[in-house]
Amino acid sequence: MKTRAIVTLGLGALVACGALAGITSHGGIAFASARDESRAERKAAAEAGKAQAALAGGRPEQAVAHAEAAVGLRPQVTSFRVLLANSYLRAGRFDSARQAFADAMTLDTSNGKLPLNLALTQIATGDWNGARQTLDTHKDIIPVSDRGLAMALAGDPSSAVELLNAAVRTPGGDAKTRQNFALSLALAGRWQDARMMAAVDLAPAEVDQRMTQWATFARPKSAYDQVASLLGVKPVRDPGQPTALALNATSGVGLAALAPVDAFMPGQAENAAKVAQEMGTPVPAAAPVPDAGAAPAPAPVEVASTPAPAFASVVFGPREEVVQHLPASAREPVSRPAPASEVSAPVRVASATVAPRTPAKGSFFVQLGAFENAAVAKNAWTRVTRSNASFAAQTPSGMSITSKAGTFYRLSVGGFARSEADALCRSYKAKGGNCFVRAHAGDQVALWAHPAGRQMASR
């Protein structure tokens, strides 16, 4: 996924997607505009505006030039520093972005996006120890979902799995969190568990595709490969941030000796090869592992001036707030739309038998989300029907599933021909929703829908 957010890692993300907090266009930056402002202030604001426009237009190199000019004129303005860091990042200049984020953190210690992005640039420049320290120091202001995946990328997938395993069981454990958890499991070498977790929110075909992508993603050739893949950027040779732009009071974030990538990616080579074999996808050969008794020699990250090797895009949970109608797998046979008068009329049961439901035209379902329980799914269904008239006459389906991450309730509508299901899902996505089409898999009428009819049918 070529996400414009530093973490969709979903980082949430990544994921993406992202996912994991992330880079924004900073459209809400309040630039100086008072009549009595100095000429330098006005020029700095103008340069920042040009930088934003260049980023929005996909011209990161021009954005860097304008953002550097803005910071040079107003070095103590945090928003200009953040804009510069984001511009460096979009341009694939990880060393410069790292220094810029560190400078911005000196001016603003409360913004959780800054230490998260700093940690990602530390990972991209090979400083895994520094990244883990940054994540730990600022753990109280970095979202758990983002911090967990960042920990896995920083070479500590075991701790990431422990953190995210708890996070997915909380009320806030959304699709982004689950997908970040799944990727962390994969990076820890637990591929079967990763597949099961990813399947909570994805259609079967998408799960296979994601496992194939992750098998490649888990074997980076250089320190910056994974972060570059997540952000959809092309690393370039980076001369570093101009010395004249550095703050007088530095943040104390120094460059650590770089260690081989494999030193912080335990248990991946064998598992990645196995998954690749199952998927029919070749995995790059693992780099030789140094003798355990010998200290690995530091090796600088070589950033080519040409685009880095293309990695399969890594897709994460939606970058937006994912309780948005999560793409989980819910299913249920649905009756065809009925006139409003019939829908609103009370359900009446004839003498001793229940009138059969209108036969479904097909066996395809549109899955709308996976939720903590039926009550949460019911609330989501209410929101969906209020904002999307096409669902008002449908009967919701639901089904509980249990995995190592916990129990989830899948919400869907179904009983359509494939073409009808595709059309309904496209319409829903056009209005900002998330869904996918799948075949019937044992779905039943949702617990809250037509309870009287369901009870009679069970006799």
Automatic annotation (TrEMBL):
<feature type="region of interest" description="Disordered">
    <location>
        <begin position="327"/>
        <end position="346"/>
    </location>
</feature>
<dbReference type="InterPro" id="IPR036680">
    <property type="entry name" value="SPOR-like_sf"/>
</dbReference>
<dbReference type="InterPro" id="IPR019734">
    <property type="entry name" value="TPR_rpt"/>
</dbReference>
<dbReference type="GO" id="GO:0042834">
    <property type="term" value="F:peptidoglycan binding"/>
</dbReference>
<feature type="domain" description="SPOR">
    <location>
        <begin position="358"/>
        <end position="441"/>
    </location>
</feature>
<dbReference type="Pfam" id="PF05036">
    <property type="entry name" value="SPOR"/>
</dbReference>
<protein>
    <recommendedName>
        <fullName>SPOR domain-containing protein</fullName>
    </recommendedName>
</protein>
<dbReference type="InterPro" id="IPR007730">
    <property type="entry name" value="SPOR-like_dom"/>
</dbReference>
<dbReference type="InterPro" id="IPR011990">
    <property type="entry name" value="TPR-like_helical_dom_sf"/>
</dbReference>
<dbReference type="Pfam" id="PF14559">
    <property type="entry name" value="TPR_19"/>
</dbReference>
